[in-house]
Write a structure and sequence with these properties.
This protein has helices at about 5-15, 200-205, 275-285; strands spanning about 20-25, 45, 55-60, 65-80, 80-85, 100-105, 120-130, 140-145, 170-175, 185-190, 215, 235-240, 240-255, 265-270. By secondary structure, the chain is mostly beta strands. A seven-stranded antiparallel β-sheet has the order 2-10-9-12-13-14-11. It has a six-stranded antiparallel beta barrel with strand order 3-4-5-8-7-6. The termini are far apart.
Length: about 300
């Protein structure tokens, strides 16, 4: 796909093009409609931190901390490290933005409110896997200002095995159940399908198969990730728990005249976490074997 159209689709998934959910430092600043459009899991059902104990929400301020906009979903990958999509923290020239702009609500299945601001984590460093030179490398690590206690959240493990079209996978994030609808303040999840269709490479030449940096999904049911889900988890079950297969990057309608870039007739791409696990381990300064989940 052409670079500019790819960027537009990616930006729409973060809520940069769409309006999004805002929390205010001063609660009196909030209006009745502060919860505006930030569409998310299509055909999703409500879920919680019992299934997703690593779930996190990324917020940005554009006004020196007067308010924070929810922009992306994320995962706790280590006690002091967050995994999310690179485009969530990049400008239109693909340059990383300042870590000081971001806050994280970690281990909560509901979006933050003004009362949560003092409990949000700050970001001290952002590490990129090379997104500015290759859009397939749509992943970053955010280092937090302090470790997250296990009573708040527990890091997700990485799924290290081959990904096939028969692998049951699920995606989770925050938002509405239909494109363009109002935001949901609770975490949603939906079953999706891994695809090996020729459409996967037709719409993204960076995809050759699901063993590379990207996993492709085309869901006949219309179950899909969407705006606000970027950076959020695609998971599979292993040893009775959800482990990280990939993170939401972007999707595109296979009818290029249709601007609805999530849901039915869409092809979606997820950054395959195991492809980047050695890089993740090098940033965290740990053995990559400590990050993966091995089948019992």
């Amino acid at each position: 796909m052409h670079l500019l159209s790819t960027l537009r689709v990616i930006l729409s998934l973060t809520g940069v093009i769409c309006a999004n959910y805002t929390i205010f430092t001063d609660p009196n600043s909030a209006s009745d409609d502060q919860t505006s459009i930030s569409t998310s899991i299509i055909n999703g059902v409500v879920t919680g931190t019992d299934y997703y104990p690593f779930i996190s929400q990324l917020y940005i301020t554009e006004n020196n901390g007067s308010s924070y906009n929810f922009i992306c979903t994320a995962e706790l990958i280590g006690q002091q490290y967050i995994l999310t999509a690179a485009h969530c923290v990049s400008d239109n020239s693909l340059r990383l933005r300042s870590p000081s702009l971001y806050r994280l609500n970690i281990g909560s299945a509901t979006l933050a409110t003004s009362n949560d601001l003092n409990n949000l984590y700050t970001v001290t460093n952002i590490y990129s896997a090379g997104y500015s030179s290759n859009l397939a490398n749509d992943v970053v690590i955010l280092k937090l200002n302090k470790p997250v206690p296990s009573s708040v959240a527990t890091p997700v493990k990485v799924y290290p095995y081959k990904i096939t079209a028969s692998l049951p996978v699920e995606v989770a994030g925050f938002g509405s159940t239909y494109y363009g609808g109002p935001v949901s303040k609770t975490l949603l999840r939906a079953l999706i399908n891994v695809s090996e269709s020729s459409s996967c490479s037709a719409f993204n030449p960076d995809w050759a198969n699901n063993s590379g940096p990207l996993v492709c999904s085309i869901s006949p049911s219309g179950n899909d990730s969407c705006n606000g889900d970027a950076g959020g988890p695609m998971v599979a079950k292993l040893n009775g728990k959800r482990v990280l297969v990939g993170t939401v990057s972007y999707g595109e309608n296979m009818d290029r005249s249709n601007v609805v870039n999530c849901g039915a007739n869409n092809v979606s791409y997820y950054v395959r976490t195991a492809y980047f696990v050695k890089w993740i381990a090098s940033v965290m300064k740990v053995d990559y074997n400590t990050l993966i989940e091995i089948a019992n």
